[in-house]
Amino acid sequence: MPEITVSEELYRQIETECSDGDVDKTLWKMVGSYRRENNPEADTT
After folding, report:
1. What is residue 9's three-state secondary structure?
2. Could you report the per-residue pLDDT of 3-25, keeping only the tens digit for each?
3. Choosing a second label site near 35 at 20 to 30 A (CA), which of 19, 25, 27, 29?
């Protein structure tokens, strides 16, 4: 699994936004959302 590095401040903001407390799960959802918005064809292969 790739490592995602963020600043401490951003990490605290992400932690605050986690509805279930699982930061890794929330980050991967964000990555998937970004990928779909910026490269929709990526999920059709």
Report:
1. helix
2. 878 899 988 888 888 878 788 88
3. 19
Q: Tokens standing for 26?
A: 């929330």
Structure tokens at 13: 């903001």
Helices (H) and strands (E) in the chain, counts: 2, 0
CA distance 31 to 17: 15
For 27-37, what is each residue's pLDDT tens digit?
Answer: 888 888 888 88
* CA dist., res. 30 & res. 18, Å (int): 11
Give the integer Cα–Cα distance in Å for 37 and 19.
22
Position 43 confidence tier, pLDDT thresholds 50, 70, 90: low
